[in-house]
């Protein structure tokens, strides 16, 4: 009844539209402009879809506004123009996507010399991204007709909005045949290779960072889409190039041949870590034979490319780029671990874990030797739980692999090396126990911590992870002969100390952790959760974490240190599984 009698008052916008000489600028001052546009106000859409009006809207989002005004006022109208152009109204989409002169105005933004205004770049990217989704065939045809389009996008890759544009072209094109045609076009333009070329010491840091992030996103998006497609669909050409040994070798050459910089090593390593994130589709963990074969092929390519550069990674662990002293909540850290060494640790852990799908025993041996240096860093950087977790992964993977390994009687060709009999390569667990002195280091660290706490000092930050490593050693001794033999070959006094440690200190610690965790869960589910704890709040928080606290802590780390969710998502699982044995990291940075 209300709408039948039209009792609502006429808006100021309607009054303006009735004027014969109304301007776009006048309309943009009206608060309900965007609302009326999305509501399909016929008179408004007729006005906005005029050639002169569309041209003015495009000029607003592609041309630097006059200087001298406040930043908010300068970009008020360009922002409104972008919202109108991307309001997903059919009339506007048809007009903009169907007329080449209008697309030429939009495209002209890319032809400007760098650097682009980042806010205008976001308006441009949002507008053309919307057209790629809504007017796909017309816009793809237009862009393919522009010679040098990809070069212009990569020229401005230091502006993050250009990353969004590239990802739109890869992930938002439908139907499938057109998507495959677009991927083939991008591959013919050597998109993957050109992005790898940008991860180079000769490029500025922002350009390297954005190129690396774009490559990582392409890998993840392409794998996800490949998993969703039918079996008889064509392979993704961009993904095939990025997963190839040739491409990985080029990336590693950029990082280590000639001048080396910390930024290039970090951003290049991020790409390698993403390549090792094999997604495994299947039902209830059952892997398809073809999927398993694909994984082994990818991992083998990466391992073959990485093997010649393991010496460079080893040297980085020993002699990292210089870092300025870092102030932490426990004092000044004169030589921080550094982002570079943290990424090396993550890569080593990923390579060792990936080895379970491969037959590169020689490389596995080299990785185990690298692990000895990581173990030294584990004990040196007492409070860096990000590092502690990576070392724990390495140790667990080596011990697990050694317990299950069956040595095939075949040889191995390592580049130009002669055939290396596998039986001549030391068992990885022997390296861990003898060269790395794993058992002795566990005992020494545990005893030093007990002494420190007895004198009133703080419990060392790695003790939760050290407990888990010790339990892993004990567990794998029960599964296979190698760990048992290694422990049996320890000096007699050390062997006795280990047996006493396992029977007493470790058993008691496990008992306390189990009791504390169960007690906490019982209290959390009871009706008197609100009663005051006899312990300080800080201590209670340090001892155990609820799911909500885990989520908040993970989010805080991501926000504070600039890592995306995928990059450190593994730590959430660790926080959940450690329970009361987990030691909260000191809030400096993962690389501190």
UniProtKB/TrEMBL annotation:
InterPro entries for the chain: SAPS (IPR007587)
Keywords: Membrane, Transmembrane, Transmembrane helix
Transmembrane segments: 359-379
UniProt keyword annotation of Endoplasmic reticulum present: no
Annotated GO MF terms: protein phosphatase binding; protein phosphatase regulator activity
GO cellular component annotations of the record: cytosol; nucleus
Xref: PANTHER family: SERINE_THREONINE-PROTEIN PHOSPHATASE 6 REGULATORY SUBUNIT 2 (PTHR12634:SF15), SIT4 YEAST -ASSOCIATING PROTEIN-RELATED (PTHR12634)
Family as reported in the entry's similarity comment: Belongs to the SAPS family.
Name this polypeptide is given: Protein phosphatase 6 regulatory subunit 2
UniProt source species: Oncorhynchus mykiss (Rainbow trout)
